[in-house]
Specification:
Layout (H helix, E strand, L loop, with lengths): L9 E5 L25 H14 L4 E5 L7 H13 L4 E6 L7 H14 L3 E4 L11 H14 L3 E3 L2 E2 L8 H15 L3 E2 L3 E2 L5 H5 L23 E4 L4 E2 L2 E2 L5 H7 L4
Parallel strand pairs: 1-2, 1-9, 2-3, 3-4, 4-5, 5-7, 6-8
Antiparallel strand pairs: 10-11
Helix pairs in contact: 1-2, 2-3, 3-4
Bound molecules: iron/sulfur cluster (SF4).
Iron/sulfur cluster (SF4) binds next to loops.
Length: 251
């Protein structure tokens, strides 16, 4: 077993970098409209292969906006369920269509995929460019379909800081709390990508939040597969993922 991946227990898929939002706090910077999306078959095979060798505890799909490709997302989560991965999450901004029939259909697709938790990004930043109405309709549709939804806000400086963005966020998530949705801890915005460019005045005091998703290349817990198939130092379209795992070296 590759010693650098001996603690591997999680798989993440960046389904696409295309996004329906243009958030000023996005850690990924500007989103290209020409981004590819992960190939369904290759993604499914990668989940099966990794699970055949490792005890994977969690899987997450995100983007960009992953629900621009809901059928792919659903196949990944269905496979994760079949392979016995206990925690199966998606992070979405909830805006992939204005068509209520399609929104309802996607909620049903996710229900059937056995996704365990839909983490719905709602806050002052997302709602600057993403209309709330279709997001609320999607949340309601998921709830009726029996899918667990957790509202996941982004906080600026800290959850308790009373800057104007946080005050707006409190009001927005309150609408969901009033309807009985759980509010998760969300995350504190860190200085990277568009956030660094647009919100730099909030990161001046020297103790700006660190990127919580960074991990040591010498002890990888999470295998992240990009929307172009890239993973570790290679690509699952060109080599079996287990071979990439075997060959990985951080130096
Ligand atoms: S923060 Fe999320 S919704 Fe907003 S632009 Fe970035 S990926 Fe899209």
């Amino acid at each position: 077993m590759n010693e650098y991946l001996k603690n591997l227990n999680r798989i993440e898929f960046i389904v696409t970098m295309c996004c329906t939002g243009r958030c000023k706090h996005c850690s990924e910077g500007d989103h290209s409209t020409g981004s590819p999306h992960i190939d369904t078959e290759a993604a499914v095979q990668a989940v099966k292969d990794v699970c055949s060798r490792y005890d994977i505890k969690s899987l997450m799909t995100f983007g960009g906006e992953p629900l621009l490709y809901p059928e792919t997302v659903a196949e990944i989560h269905r496979t994760a369920f079949e392979m016995g991965i206990p925690q199966r999450d998606i992070i979405t901004n909830g805006f992939f269509s204005k068509d209520k029939n399609r929104i309802h259909e996607v909620a049903m697709i996710l229900h059937e995929s056995r996704v365990e938790r839909v983490m719905l990004s709602v806050d002052a930043f997302h709602q600057e460019t993403i209309p709330l109405e279709p997001v609320e309709f999607f949340a309601d549709s998921l709830k009726s379909a029996g899918v667990y939804v957790e509202i996941s806000p982004a906080w600026l400086v800290s959850e308790s800081d009373d800057n104007p963005y946080n005050l707006k966020t409190v009001s927005l998530i309150g609408r969901f709390a009033d309807k009985g949705f759980d509010i998760g801890r969300g995350n504190v915005i860190f200085p990277q990508g568009s956030a660094l460019k647009n919100l730099s005045e909030y990161f001046l005091n020297g103790d700006a939040p660190q990127n919580p998703y960074e991990e040591s290349p010498f002890d990888i817990h999470s295998l992240c597969i990009g929307c172009d198939g890239s993973a570790l130092n290679g690509n699952i379209y060109h080599k079996n993922v287990l071979q990439l795992v075997e060959e990985y070296s951080p130096v």
